[in-house]
Amino acid sequence: MVEDELSLVFAALADPTRRAILERLADGDATVQQLAEPFAMSQQAVSKHLKVLERARLISRSRSAQARPCALDGERLEAAVSWIERHRQVWAERHDRLEAHLERLNKARGATA
Questions:
Q1: What are the residues whose beta carbons fall under 8 Å from the beta carbon of 55, sequence distance 6 or more?
Q2: Distance between CA atoms of residues 113 and 93, nearest Å
Q3: What does the alpha-carbon distance between residue 42 and residue 36 come to, in Å, rounded to a whole number?
Q4: What one-character-per-residue DSSP string does the chain give?
Q5: Alpha carbons 21 and 38: distance in angstroms, whole number
Q6: From CA 75, how far away is CA 84, in angstroms rounded?
Q7: In angstroms, how far is the first alpha carbon of the chain from the final one?
Q8: How many Cβ atoms from other residues are within 10 Å of residue 26's Cβ?
Q9: Which terminal CB of the chain, N or C, has fewer other CB atoms within 10 Å?
Q10: Phi-psi region at 23: left, alpha or beta (left = phi > 0; alpha = psi -120 to 50)
């Protein structure tokens, strides 16, 4: 995944409303009206959030007669999770090395005391 695409994903996920929309779409496709129901905002405001999610390619929209149902597109989420996991692993290893180093220092101090 290109870094700019990853930035779009993380920027889209930074907003709690957009995360809630993604959680709702994890249960199945929904229209803008259905997605707007639980929020104290207009359909137009929800549509703006959907555009951000669509630009990040976290959702897709299809056309069904007059409705334009939204669907979750998990591919970009998987790429973001992979990126996070790689970096989590690096930091976990660094933490483990630091912990072992501090333990050796403490044992060395205890031996000289």
A1: 8, 12
A2: 30
A3: 7
A4: --HHHHHHHHHHHTSHHHHHHHHHHTT--B-HHHHHTTSSS-HHHHHHHHHHHHHTTSEEE--BTTB--EEE-HHHHHHHHHHHHHHHHHHHHHHHHHHHHHHHHHHHHHHH-
A5: 10
A6: 14
A7: 54
A8: 10
A9: C
A10: alpha
Read off the pTM: 0.75
Q: Quick one: tokens of 80?
A: 């973001």
Check: CB of residue 70 under 8 Å from CB of residue 32: yes
What is the mean predicted confidence (pLDDT) over 75-103?
Answer: 91
pLDDT of residue 44: 92
CB 62 within 8 A of CB 69: yes
User: What pLDDT, in 10s, does the model give residues 40-74?
Assistant: 999 899 999 999 999 999 999 987 767 789 999 98
Whole-angstrom Cα Rg for the chain: 22
CB 9 within 8 A of CB 54: no
Mean pLDDT, the chain, integer: 90
